[in-house]
Design brief:
The protein is of the alpha/beta class. The protein is built from nine helices and eight strands.
């Protein structure tokens, strides 16, 4: 079944058609904990959606969302309350309500935060003709766009893959790579980088045979990330020259 909530790709700065021969690197950024933090907006929107549909308050509980796709998070909560996974139509309905509440909340939440160095970094990268910028996130498509829009970053990215493409992070990263290659043409796997703050980002990069840049800006400890042996491990993305040195 096609995943619910596919975003209109025109909302991104997409370039269709012929591959750009000068694009020699592909960067795939995670969103939460890597580019920004939403200050709990996801939990607020989900709990309002769940209450609206099922009349259950404070449904989130002690779920740890780090690195999980929205399908995994919502499925975990659903099973805790109902003892079984949601049916496809139930999940689709939940996503619709969740996205609607998220759009309302994201623009007013006081806890929204862009991670250190990100705005200038993304602007600089977007000005480099040899780099294709993409998103690979566990959020559904609509919510991904709302987050990037709030951060005023949405117009810098050429393509994205989200939880609307797959509930499995390695698979959605694979989709992101495939979309990026339509822009760049063939690339060596050493020229493709997954940049994220969670264990799942490192695993997804390894699964797809591409390089990983782990950043210790989320809730995953630096030691935990280091134990996964990513290709590179950074405290954050504020040292732009170090990142450009890594990219070569």
């Amino acid at each position: 079944m096609p995943a619910p909530g596919r975003m209109n790709q025109a909302k991104l700065n997409l370039e269709r058609g012929t591959p750009q021969p000068d694009m020699k690197k592909m960067l795939l950024f995670d969103i939460d904990g890597t580019l920004l933090l939403t200050g709990g907006t996801g939990r607020i929107a989900f709990e309002r959606a769940f209450y609206e549909i099922y009349g259950i308050d404070n449904s989130w509980g002690h779920v740890i969302p780090d690195g999980k796709t929205d399908q995994m998070i919502f499925g975990e909560i659903f099973e805790r309350h109902f003892g079984q996974p949601p049916r496809p139509n139930e999940l689709k309905n939940l996503f619709i309500h969740y996205a609607r509440h998220f759009e309302k909340e994201i623009d007013i939440t006081p806890g929204f935060k862009i991670m250190p160095g990100i705005p200038d970094l993304i602007r600089r990268l977007s000005n480099l003709s040899h780099i294709a910028l993409g998103i690979a996130t566990g959020n559904i498509a609509e919510v991904s766009h709302y987050k990037l829009r709030r951060a005023d970053l949405h117009h810098y990215f050429h393509f994205m893959a989200t939880a609307s493409d797959s509930h499995d992070r390695p698979t959605l990263v694979k989709h992101a790579i495939e979309r990026g290659l339509t822009l760049t043409g063939p690339l060596d796997t050493n020229s493709i980088f997954v940049i994220g703050d969670a264990e799942a980002d490192v695993h997804a990069a390894k699964k797809n045979g591409v390089r990983s840049i782990a950043v210790a800006t989320g809730s995953t400890s630096r030691q935990t990330l280091q134990d996964l042996q990513p290709d590179y491990l950074l405290d954050d993305l504020s040292n732009h020259e170090l990142l450009f040195e890594i990219l070569g």
